[in-house]
Predict the structure.
Amino acid sequence: MRNAVARHGIVAVLTMAAIAAGPVSAVADTTPARIETTQTPDAYVNYLTSEISKNAAAGKDTADDRRTLEQYKSLTRTDQNKYLDYLNDPKLWQSFFDSQEEIDSPKATTSAPAEGATAREGTETVTKYNKDVSFISDSTVEREGSTAQKVAQVAPDASWTDKATYTKKVKAFGITVTKLTVWVRYQATRSGASLRKTVS
């Protein structure tokens, strides 16, 4: 079953992220127009370095930023330029917004986990955009506070709080370009027979 509400929410959030990143305009030729921070590989390295400094000064974790910078710098100059073209390609982003993977995977259900287990992972879906770029989606459902002892102590269809997380990302040359995570906490019966309420 496709979750249309979640899909529309994802598209809205990603669209806002793309707008915040800067204007991207379609052009007649095959090379996308680049915004200022992605005009050249050197400009992009300077931009990433500046963002790392700003985030570090604000006390934010910069591990992902540093990893992106190192992975980008390790590409050949030709691939660095292709990467920048992908960042600015409206067709790529439209394809990403329009791609519709199944949000409800067989493993991402509200059924009880194995004794002592707390998380159930869905099947990762990889969609190739081209030989360099992939769209990757995954979902997990985590039963909060689930332990073997609690499982043994509650009634067969007691209420549980689950956290369902849907993640979608774009990877170019193996580098994560962007990652979106949408989650919801909800209360469901242990058997998964009914959803009681949305928590947050």
Q: What stands out?
A: Residues 1-29, 102-119 have pLDDT under 50 and may be disordered. The radius of gyration is 20 Å. The longest strand covers residues 175-189.
